[in-house]
Amino acid sequence: MSEGKSSSGARKRGPYIQRGTACVNCRRRKMKCDGIHPVCGPCAHSGHSEDCEFTASMSHLSQSQILEQNIAMLEARLEELQQAERNGAPAVQLSDPYTASEAADERNIANFMVNQQPLGFFLDARPSGPRSFKVISSNGMEIQPSNALQSAIRLWGARLGREPGFAEQEPILVNKALQAASVSVSDSHPNGIMHGIQADVLLANYFLSDMRFVEGKYHILTALSMILTTGIQGGSNPPPICHYNAEGFWGVLVMDQCWASVFNSTPNMNIMSISMHQVPQGKVSDIVHNLKSFLNDPSTGFLSRSTREYAARAAVVIERIIDTKRNWNLDTSMASMNNPELMSILSRLERLVQALKGTLPPLVRGAGAPYDHYSVLGNLIFYVAAMKLYGISASRVATSKQKQLYSAEMIINIVTSNENRSCTLDPIVAMIWKEAVHAILNEMLAVRKAANAGGSSVTHYKSENELLGIYRRALTAVLDCSTLTRYQQQRVQDTYTNM
Predict the structure, then answer these.
(1) Predicted pLDDT at 101
(2) What is the DSSP letter of 237?
(3) 113 to each of 157, 158, 306, 432, how far by Cα in Å?
(4) What's the rounded Cα separation, in Å, for the pair 396 and 398?
(5) What DSSP assignment string belongs to 89-154?
(6) Biggest distance spanned by C-alpha atoms of the chain
């Protein structure tokens, strides 16, 4: 075996490499290549392993060059079929699907990039061309997304783009995304697991927004399980991957806690009951410990300045409120309201809500500042938590009713704000919006009944006309973005019609 060549299954490096034998990627990037096959050192270290290709000699072409050559031959053959007339037969007329589909693909990817946060995207994606994008890798380099992540992004992009023919293409795109997600753990991509978690988050929100709740909850569980079992929590990893692990876990935790509250069920991860021995050491362990500490002591500080962390805290609190209402049957009976144990629990929950109120992330952005969906979502989850907590005693305590309805009005104000128009792409926002509007309609009905009964000494939040104005403003939210939002809007309108 001569120097500089590699034997089967082995990688050797000669004292030098001949001119012109560096890999295609190093030549393109003007990097010094070491010639190691099948992936050279510079490509391996920079996270460009999948782009490393060699041309063994001038008589051999790289894979990309072969593909380009084949494409040129096929295009020439298509041109021949369209133009040639043989034996008196008319030329074969073929449509060119590439221009339209490329243009649509470019628009779809652009739509996803603009709206990625409400869809649950926690990684850092950056456009790298008209129809391509890259994601920051564990070592801070830009790399191609895994197959699972690309498929999930293109699925969402196609829905957002609403291009003609999407209804026919959707089942194919969904099936492709599901197949890619199912093998993401075994993907050879250098960040395949993290990208697989991100793909599951996108698929969860896709199905939830389509009211396919079983599938949506399945992908939440899959994402959470991958985080807890694959050992990606960080510790020795470079800062970028630790950051995205934390952002990903907070985001998945928000989904898990909020949707458990929607369905009045136990979350997949119960922060209060989970043992620290069940949580792998690392970044996730730190987060779980911090959340446990916060639930026991509301003065516990934050781990970071991430708005996802705030939203996760608020989501855990709302789950605690729902759990208390369920355990004490507070939705059906107020008989236990004088129980000292329950009063102690409610007092502790109010301290948690007040702690959240004192750390609400700001909604006002500076000129040109990017939209931060988790600032919006954190505020919405806080206000729905306050709604549910004060709603427990609203029928008995006037101040509780005022706080409940004020929180409902704040939710409507946030969702209908022009700056937050895209927030309803997040399916949990549709559920929060519905809760707030129903609270306003219930109060409107109470005011109407009191007026019909000849007046009442009960102090109401606002007049019927003012409440009607809030209801009409609620309907100005962008609610035509998914099956779920349209359904919730129709339910609200039906409730108003039947009042």
Answers:
(1) 64
(2) S
(3) 9, 12, 20, 25
(4) 7
(5) PPPP----HHHHHHHHHHHHHHHHHHHTGGGT--S-EEEEETTEEEEE-TTS-EEPPPHHHHHHHH
(6) 103
pTM for this entry: 0.78
Give the Cα separation of 379 and 392 in Å (integer). Answer: 20
Residue ranges, the chain, pLDDT below 50: 1-15, 56-59, 93-100, 233-241
Q: CA-CA distance, 155 to 141, in Å (whole number)?
A: 25
Collapsed DSSP state (helix, strand, coil) of residue 337: coil
C-alpha count within 13 angstroms, C-beta hemisphere, residue 97: 2
The answer to whether residues 108 and 155 touch, using CB atoms and an 8 Å cutoff, is: no
pLDDT tens, position by position, 200-231: 999 999 999 999 999 999 999 999 998 888 75
Find residue 135's DSSP bridge partners.
Answer: 125, 143
Own/partner contacts of 52-59, CB < 8 Å, gap of 24 or more, are 52/23, 52/24, 52/25, 52/26, 53/23, 53/24, 53/25, 54/21, 54/23, 54/24, 55/21, 55/24, 56/21, 57/21, 58/20
Phi-psi region of 42 (alpha: psi -120 to 50; beta: other; left: phi over 0): alpha
* Closest by CA position to 125, among listed 116, 248, 205: 116
